[in-house]
Amino acid sequence: MKKYILIIKNVWSEMTTYRLNFALWRLRVNLQLLTMYFLWLAIIPTSGQFGSYNQSLMLTYILGGALLSTVIISSRSYGVGDHITQGDLSNYLIRPINYFAFWFAQDLGDKAMNISFAIFELTALFLILKPPFFIQTDPTFLILAAICAFVAVFLYFFLNFLIGLVGFWSPEVWAPRFIFIILITFFAGGLFPLDILPAPLYEIFKYLPFTYLIYFPLKVYLGQLYLQQILQGIATAAIWVLILYLIVKFVWNRGLKLYTAYGR
Amino acid sequence: MTAKVTQTAFVSRFGAAIFIIGKILRFAFFLMFLLILGSKTHRVADYSIFQIIFVFATFNIVDTTSQFFLREVYRFRYYVVSGEFDYFLTKPLSPLIRSLFGGSDILDLPILLLSVVFIVYSASQIGNISSPFVFLYIALLINALAIALAMHILVLGIGVMTTEIDHTIMIYRDITQMGRLPVDIYREPLSWILTFIIPVGIMITIPAKSFFGILSPQLVVLSLFISAIFLIASIRFWHFALKNYTSVSS
């Protein structure tokens, strides 16, 4: 366990070494957040309604989505593909370390750093913008939303890892990741709540893993779902985690048989 | 040089195909988002849904055209960090021209064409098109590209001085993303800042408004003036950065 804690610490050291890089990254994250915030502020007037959202709920969704993205989407495991294509994977295969746990620890370090900054930035934005924020006071919804976010962390980890494994078959690891980022941007619900989509499309989305990354935990936080729907959602997300874990394991084992440490 | 870069882009057909599909998907998804907005609100601020689509397509024209021609800026950090930039300085070609136009991105071409299709389509739906407004729109688009060029020169200058390129250019791109919708839908002072300080509005909203025939002549003049100021200031900054270049990487 100690070695994984050390990996988390190393991520922090690395991020604080390249401070300008990290600061500019955070600036970008906040610019993207502000774009969506002001867009929705313009679309829904103070007393207006958009689907099942009034201005307060929508702005809470957008700001909450920014915080959740930091918890769930921020990661380091995008480097798996580069490890494979550049032959760096060999260094880890011969070490007494679990390669999956190594990346998960890296992700945790990255998330912890990003969360600490996001809390500070969002507090500043709250003080400046004074948005009409919806605060959930029912502990049941808060606990269930936290559980959904916890499951989403694993869901994203396995999705992200799986994309990286393309490296076993093709040196083009960034092209599939480009598509993946676009899909996540739109289908995870970070830009808008997925239930504003046409009903037939939304019904399909309920069965996709992306829905459970940002949209579903936020929807639970807002208290817009019945308990049965929440439990169904958590079960669906958990099944996706299991399916993705099995696929990742299978692809990893197949990939290792092809791996030639090319580049080393 | 452009032919060489184009060949390189297609070395991996798989990668090229995936990137093109990704760009088209991004375009299509945002368009879908706009259509959903339109289906529920019919108008966003004072704009009809086809006017909003026209602005979005205009944004894509400006954004994609500048990326198409100025893609080399995205590779500039490598040249500075590796010391290769020193070779640019010794060659009989302006290092600024080399750093700006050293490589185009052919993979942006489908989005460029798609944007033109949507401009024509949404314009036909808006109706009331008059030739003077079309010419003014094209002139202001060229003006927008001059501002985009100035922004890229500014990024190169910062790159020479700090080696920081990747995030700076992406911050520019993130800010311009606000122009996917008319900037006057945002509240003040954001709308004013996006028009006159970071001239996203001049790059995208103002050309579109000229096409709709709702732009005052004063704003046209002001747009040209601001773009000239940006271009002159960015070139001066580039020369200032070059004078302070220490060539430590080589």
Structure description:
Chain A has 264 residues and is mainly alpha-helical. Chain A has one domain (2-258). Chain A is built from 11 helices and 2 strands, in the order H-H-E-E-H-H-H-H-H-H-H-H-H. Chain A has a two-stranded antiparallel ribbon with strand order 1-2. In chain A, strand 1 (49-50) and strand 2 form a beta hairpin. Chain B has helices at 2-9, 13-41, 49-70, 76-82, 85-90, 95-101, 109-126, 131-162, 166-177, 190-197, 200-212, 217-243, and strands spanning 43-44, 47-48. Chain B is globular. In chain B, helix 3 packs antiparallel against helix 7, helix 3 (49-70) crosses helix 8 (131-162) and helix 3 (49-70) crosses helix 11. In chain B, strand 1 and strand 2 (47-48) form a beta hairpin. Chain B has a two-stranded antiparallel sheet with strand order 1-2. Helix content of chain B is 76%, strand content 2%. The relative contact order of chain B is 0.14. Chain A binds chain B through residues 20-21, 24-25, 27-28, 31-32, 35, 38-39, 41-43, 50-51, 170-172, 174-176, 178-179, 182-183, 185-186, 191-192, 196-198, and chain B through 12, 14-16, 18-19, 21-22, 25-26, 29, 33, 36-37, 40-41, 44-45, 162, 164, 167-168, 170-171, 174-175, 177-178, 181, 185-187, 190.
